[in-house]
Task: inverse folding
């Protein structure tokens, strides 16, 4: 196996921002008074067959829409408007189709195990989004779904990278999907995950309350082993670090990861941080910056999409857009802006347990 | 870079045994693990049978018995038990010696506790003990196993319904072949829950009399629970440490049926493609497969579709095959790993375990499963199938070394 060049040749992102229109790169970002951000309906009906629409769970609509936008963006369409089938579909999700899971649980408990219907049970399966995309595209290829908290989307990327390198396939549709429901918000609120009072999301990093703001999204990338005129970036690699014992351990692993790609910390032109406004958990980001990236341009994004397990898929969309346009949207900037952007590193952690790094370079 | 991936350790807990030895004993005695519901109260008690692990959650807790074990889910407890056995069986004492990963699989994760939480939560959003919900997600059991065994280099979890743990075997093998890890503990765990019992019941695919796969009068599946793990190691480690090899992972493939969210296609497209991919990777001809441990859930739809796919690949030469789900029940996210362990037991003990409860061949098929235990049979290559919702079809080939 030799490491191939892997390119990001298409993007599709359903989020709380207007991200489905690529000509409109966060020029007018939405900010709200809230502690939870939900996706904008980018016109789901356009992308989903009407006979399926009514019964389909929201996360499935989000996922299919993001996947189709991604394939269109990557020019994976036939003249008749149907889609070319990718070699593989790989998704990541933290909680899967949680709305349907809650629906079935509620009915089962309230109706004391009687008079139940199968729809929400069927849709509650974690690989429903990947399965439904395959079904609509008639895609018989490799179809995996990873479900590991802050490693879900990262594992999906790793699976695709590994198999493109092994020449098992030459392209892959890879995405992260998670939905926010009122019940899951209520439960995770009790765990102290979210700010008690709504904030202006623009001020995420200024607010002193404990916790972050909840979010959701479905974001896909189309990976290919060849470059074309639409290429956004080269995907160099992904690193996952479970529960590091110290910032030292983390920084050593990041350095080794960059070295593996013949880079050092100084070569990182932009570091996108998963800062989420919870000062306890954000400390980890500041410590790594202090240790390794003191002079690096920094950016953040969770004021735009909220916090969720597969939020790094939103970050990869953002990084890819920045690389292609060579423009860092104002609301994303945390300090100075680099002259030229050749390498972007995304650093995100979920609950300070799952730490991940995604590296992309100018193609 | 390792071209070959070997299995050097196995561990299992399922309805027919709390470890590998007990499982083998039950298989050889043709003793099924299907029986009445004892784990939870349910209106289906006395009507729908289940294949429960014969240990209460408290017994499992006592056995695992480490600090903080109180809030472990049954899924995690089963996983820890089987994973520990697998590591022990591989003779691994120093986990830090090589780059070691854990790729686990589950379908409902910690649902065994969260469904209890939810009943109270529905009364009031402030009710329900948080200790019963924090372990809900699929990653929980994986991280519990990792922490118990001190695995830190890599962990992840796969959930693709009933093919989940075969996919864990595949992903783990790829991580070794691509040189990213030296050894990976792969497998899956799923505990029985009212959620899955009622879910499958709404689909009307649960057999009141216990499953009888590949039978003309089959009436559905029987849910089971359990966990199974395999230690996969690179050829470098195996040679350097002169490790005992239990089997080789010679080929595997995943394909999507792309036909229906739950039903399998009438021509078995996904199953056909998964088996074809596995054969292609292994370099074997279909005639070299000595036995197939089929998915064989006992549902009308699966067995027909799988049977047709086997006839398409093997023609008139379909090798001996059986479903071992009438022993273990359908253990969902653990099924692929449980059946990989059973396949390795077949190779090592030169025995094909029978398809229990079979009496009448299916009229649509020319083939029928093995009815009685076959002993003293040389098994070089075994194909094991696992198929799931979302059209997710996976096959793995386990070979004698």
Result:
């Amino acid at each position: 196996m030799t490491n191939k060049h892997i390119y990001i040749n298409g993007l599709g992102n359903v989020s709380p921002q207007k991200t489905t229109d690529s000509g409109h790169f966060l020029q007018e970002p939405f900010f709200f008074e809230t502690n939870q951000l939900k996706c904008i309906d980018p016109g789901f009906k356009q992308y989903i067959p009407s006979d399926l629409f009514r019964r389909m769970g929201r996360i499935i609509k989000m996922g299919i829409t993001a996947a189709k936008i991604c394939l269109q963006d990557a020019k994976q369409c036939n003249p008749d408007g149907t889609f070319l089938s990718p070699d593989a579909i790989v998704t990541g999700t933290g909680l899967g189709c949680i709305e349907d899971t809650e629906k079935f649980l509620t009915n089962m408990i309230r109706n004391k195990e009687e008079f139940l219907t199968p729809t929400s049970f069927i849709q509650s399966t974690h690989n429903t989004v990947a399965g439904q995309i395959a079904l609509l595209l008639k895609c018989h290829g490799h179809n995996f779904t990873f479900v590991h908290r802050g490693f879900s989307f990262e594992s999906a990327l790793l699976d695709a990278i590994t198999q493109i390198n092994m020449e098992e396939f030459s392209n892959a549709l890879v995405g992260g999907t998670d939905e926010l429901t009122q019940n899951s918000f209520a439960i995770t609120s009790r765990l102290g995950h979210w700010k008690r009072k709504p904030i202006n999301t623009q001020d995420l990093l200024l607010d002193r309350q404990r916790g972050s703001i909840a979010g959701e999204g479905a974001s896909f990338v189309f990976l290919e082993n060849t470059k074309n005129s639409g290429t956004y970036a080269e995907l160099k690699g992904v690193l996952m670090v479970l529960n590091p014992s110290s910032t030292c351990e983390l920084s050593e692993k990041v350095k080794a990861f960059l070295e593996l790609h013949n880079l050092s910390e100084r070569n990182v032109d932009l570091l996108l941080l998963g800062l989420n406004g919870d000062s306890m958990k954000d400390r980890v980001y500041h410590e790594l910056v202090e240790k390794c990236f003191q002079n690096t341009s920094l950016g953040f994004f969770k004021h735009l999409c909220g916090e969720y397990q597969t939020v790094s898929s939103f970050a990869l969309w953002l990084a890819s857009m920045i690389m292609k346009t060579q423009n860092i949207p104002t609301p994303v900037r945390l300090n100075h802006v680099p002259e030229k952007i050749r390498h972007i590193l995304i650093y995100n952690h979920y609950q300070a347990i799952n730490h991940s790094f995604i590296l992309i370079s100018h193609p | 870079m390792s071209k070959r991936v070997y299995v050097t350790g196995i561990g299992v807990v399922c309805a027919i045994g709390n470890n590998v030895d007990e499982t083998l004993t039950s298989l050889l005695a043709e003793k099924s693990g299907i029986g009445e519901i004892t784990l939870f109260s349910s209106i289906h008690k006395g009507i729908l049978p289940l294949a429960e692990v014969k240990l209460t959650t408290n017994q499992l807790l006592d056995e695992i018995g480490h600090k903080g074990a109180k809030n472990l889910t049954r899924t995690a407890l089963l996983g820890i038990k089987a994973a520990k056995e697998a590591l022990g069986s591989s003779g691994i004492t120093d986990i830090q010696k090589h780059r070691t990963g854990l790729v686990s699989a589950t379908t409902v994760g910690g649902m065994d506790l969260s469904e209890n939480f939810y009943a109270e939560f529905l009364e009031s959003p402030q009710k329900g003990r948080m200790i019963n919900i924090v372990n809900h997600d699929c990653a929980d059991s994986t991280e519990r196993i990792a922490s118990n065994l001190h695995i830190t280099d890599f962990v992840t979890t796969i959930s693709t319904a009933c093919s989940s743990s075969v996919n864990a075997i595949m992903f783990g093998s790829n991580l070794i072949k691509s040189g990213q890890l030296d050894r990976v503990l792969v497998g899956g765990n799923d505990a029985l829950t009212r959620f899955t019992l009622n879910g499958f019941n709404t689909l009307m695919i649960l057999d009141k009399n216990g499953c009888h796969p590949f039978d003309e009068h089959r009436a559905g599946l029987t849910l089971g629970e359990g966990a199974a793990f395999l230690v996969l190691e690179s050829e470098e480690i195996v040679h350097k440490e002169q490790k005992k090899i239990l089997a080789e992972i010679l080929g595997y493939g995943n394909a999507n049926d792309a036909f229906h969210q739950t039903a399998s296609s009438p021509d078995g497209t996904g199953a056909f493609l998964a088996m074809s991919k596995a054969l292609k990777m292994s370099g074997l001809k279909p005639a070299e497969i000595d036995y197939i441990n089929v998915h064989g859930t006992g549902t009308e739809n699966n067995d027909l579709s799988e049977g047709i796919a086997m006839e398409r690949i093997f023609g008139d030469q379909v090798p001996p095959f059986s479903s071992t789900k009438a022993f273990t029940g359908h253990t969902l996210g653990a099924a692929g790993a449980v059946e990989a362990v059973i396949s390795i037991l077949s190779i090592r003990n030169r025995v094909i375990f029978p398809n229990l409860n079979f009496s009448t061949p299916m009229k649509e098929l020319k083939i029928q499963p093995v009815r009685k235990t076959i002993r003293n049979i040389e098994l070089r290559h075994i194909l094991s199938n696992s198929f799931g919702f979302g059209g997710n079809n996976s096959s793995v080939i386990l070979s004698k070394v």
The mean pLDDT of chain B is 96. Chain B touches chain A through 67 residues (CB under 8 Å).
